[in-house]
Amino acid sequence: MFPDHWSFFFIHIALASFIVCMLSGVFLMFFYDPSVETVTYQGPYEPLRGVETSRAFTSTMELSFEVRGGLLMRQLHSWSASLMIAALILQILRVFFTAEFRKPREIAWIALFGCLMTAMMAGLTGHFLPDDMLSGSSLAVLDGVLKAIPVIGTTLSSLFFQGSFPSGAIATVYPMHVLILPALIALFGLVIAFQTFRHKPTQFPLPGRSENNVVGKSLAPATVKRFGLMLMVSGILFLIAATVTINPIWTYGPADPGNASAGGGALWFVAFLDGAQRLVPPGWEIVLSGYTLTLAILVPVAVCGLFFVAAILYPFIESWISADKRDHHLLVRPRNAPARTGIGIAAIVFYAVLWIAAGSDVIALHFSLSNEDVILALQVSLFLGPIVGFSIARRICLGLQRKDKEIALHGFETGRIVRLPSGEYQEIHAPVDEFQRWELVNYESPSPLHPRPDESGRIRIRERVRAFFSRRFFEDRVVPPSPDEVRELRGHSSAEPQATESSENPRTDGSPVRDDTARRSGGADLTL
């Protein structure tokens, strides 16, 4: 059985994009020449005719202008790679905010990140292969990052470029791009699929669903539906590739180590690395024992690396803080985990600030601002933005939980006000059926842990740290109403006197009573 929900299809969009990317890549392999031999371009593109270029650049130009369908395949390859990475990012966000990463799916969470990072590396290595001006600029940045690593930096740069900058990089990245990285992506995908079938699919909590069953469609109709989605994604990719230009290398020209394209920037999925380097104060370096530590490069790379490491280890961190070792097969509404949702929003804000910083010069140019002022604003946002995002997201989640509890206990507000025989005015609430009430209040609300002494009666530092973070996670919470509370309130509501005058009857002062009927709008069950 396979549960049905629109958010479950992100991974299938990524799979369809991967298949299209692989098939188009096989086509491109027949025409691309990974050689740095210098030749004179004599193709149909007049502005570059007679210019000395590498065989890699010339073969890419021939593929774009002389091979039938070549430009379509190039653009299809690029667009499908971008869509695959975007779908993987959305899948990671969906898994995080619905707590699908919890035991026993930690391995699938790690494999999902491995798939994303490998796809990013595949996209980056593919960006180097045309040997155009943008790829040459990217290689220059990569060379600087490698050489900034203490002790072994120059050796790593020499190995990567095979002693010849920048042309030697193509011989290194080509086998990685066409063999190693696609194989790793497929391997991580198989791990995710194996974990899904081994531990059964997850599902959102609804009446009739539990940790021990799966409610959804059987294998055959679910497979047909997903196959149809993948065909639709493939068709949309072909349509985009046929109408929207991406990576027009003929406008950039061949790579030149001494030049760079004006307005050129990093690929969108690695732009956060470029943005992190721009936010570091200039001239930030330390000389130790004759070695120069270029912190302006090392710190951004280290911060971004720690960000991904923390994200990968988050399931184990939360499990330790909550002391929850149970298996979970039901997902969680983001509003019912305020601390986790706040952390996710804080991470998104942190990533977004770095991503925006990659275009700081373009922002300053278009809005007629000083680049230094834009950088300063982004530096402040990098530290304050995640804190503000966490606080706002957590308060919103708590407010939504309180609203759900109120609806479960008292019903939906209708906006109708009636006058009782005693002269008292009351608002009429629409009753909530059992299924709606179950959806609103059927969730866990863990209480903070208290430090436990060991056999000798001492409270270890580890337990104190766990209790500290547990309070930060679970101190602000909304406890769902118990069945006894619900029954008591239902009994009280049934004993209330009925209204004797409609809301249209006038008040004693002659003014009419407002009668606005509010309607509850339906929505998907993946809401805050």
UniProtKB/TrEMBL annotation:
MF annotations from Gene Ontology: oxidoreductase activity; quinol-cytochrome-c reductase activity
Top EC group: translocase
Cofactor(s) for this UniProt protein: heme
UniProt-annotated stretches for the region Disordered: 481-528
UniProt-listed Pfam families: Cytochrom_B_N_2
Start-end of Basic and acidic residues biased regions: 481-493, 504-519
Highest taxon of source: Bacteria
GO biological process, any: respiratory electron transport chain
Transmembrane spans: 7-32, 76-97, 109-129, 174-194, 227-250, 291-316, 337-358, 374-393
Catalysed reaction equations from the record: a quinol + 2 Fe(III)-[cytochrome c](out) = a quinone + 2 Fe(II)-[cytochrome c](out) + 2 H(+)(out)
Location of the Cytochrome b/b6 N-terminal region profile domain: 1-206
InterPro entries tied to this protein: Cyt_b/b6_N, Cytb/b6-like_sf, Di-haem_cyt_TM
An annotated GO cellular component: membrane
EC number: 7.1.1.8
Keywords per UniProt: Membrane, Transmembrane, Transmembrane helix
Protein name, per record: Cytochrome bc1 complex cytochrome b subunit
Source organism of this protein record: Brevibacterium antiquum
